[in-house]
Amino acid sequence: MTPDAPRLVLFDLDGCLVDSEPLSLQALVAEIRAAGLDGLDFENVRDRFLGVTLADIVAHVESELGHAVPEGFEDRFHERLYALYAERLERIDAMVSVAERLAAEGVTIAIASGGSAGRIRHTLDLTGLRDLFGDRLFTGEEVGRGKPAPDLFLYAAGQLDMPPGMACVIEDSPHGIEGARRAGMRAIGFTGGTHLDGIRVAQARRLLDAGAACVLADASEVYPAIMDARLGLDAPRRVRG
């Protein structure tokens, strides 16, 4: 490991370690329509809400409806989601291998996700990843502002006693990339999740525009990128894969 290698790597969970975003978006579309907001499909919700906390999504839906969502909206969303998880949730094994290698080399790894703590724990338990990350789980519920604000990333680094400049973030959403950059952290974009099928090139451009040091579609290339000191905060940005 080089002297400039990060001491902390923060992983977004959905779309980076687990291929959960298609399931989340499917459940979200169904619940939004049930709440009375028609006209939204998978693509609309993906483009508008990828990387956004559920609380912020609810606030947007309520603004569009002109009134509060029906009672139990979030509970029903999670019921739909967990039913889909039980049938179809899969790990992104190549990215899990990256996390395992980092941990074996003494790099601190953690989850920094806009999802709820309960959802994160359920996902990690279901996919057998709980032991890998332990209690190093940080959520949008713990900070005042979700991504693209830097709050979550700064909070995670502070709780782990790591300087932000020694952290690297792996993200699939422009909100997450922007938040990481605003926190003073290097950010690597990942576009390997199946929710980006058909828009991978366009999403890579959005991630670069948000400040990603590089964007990778192949998770097996993430470890070398993390360790590449040339991909600093001010490095030229590029897409691979």
Give a written overview of the molecule.
- Helices cover 46% and strands 12% of the residues.
- Strand 6, helix 11 and strand 7 form a beta-alpha-beta unit.
- The chain has a seven-stranded parallel beta sheet with strand order 3-2-1-4-5-6-7, sandwiched between helices.
- The chain folds into two domains: 163 residues, Rossmann fold (3-Layer(aba) Sandwich), CATH 3.40.50.1000; 68 residues, Putative phosphatase, domain 2 (DNA polymerase, domain 1, Orthogonal Bundle).
- It has eleven helices and seven strands.
- It has 241 residues and is of the alpha/beta class.
How is the secondary structure organized here?
Elements: E1 8-11, H1 21-34, H2 42-49, H3 54-65, H4 73-88, H5 93-104, E2 108-113, H6 117-127, H7 130-133, E3 137-139, H8 151-159, E4 167-171, H9 174-182, E5 186-190, H10 200-210, E6 214-216, H11 222-227, E7 238-240
Parallel strand pairs: 1-2, 1-4, 2-3, 4-5, 5-6, 6-7
Radius of gyration: 17 Å
Estimated share of beta-strand residues? 5-15%
- Which superfamily, in CATH terms, is the homologous superfamily of the largest domain? HAD superfamily/HAD-like
Helix content: 40-55%
The level 1 CATH classification of the largest domain is Alpha Beta
Provide the succession of SSEs.
Answer: EHHHHHEHHEHEHEHEHE
Largest sheet: 7 strands, parallel
Q: What is CATH's topology name of the largest domain?
A: Rossmann fold
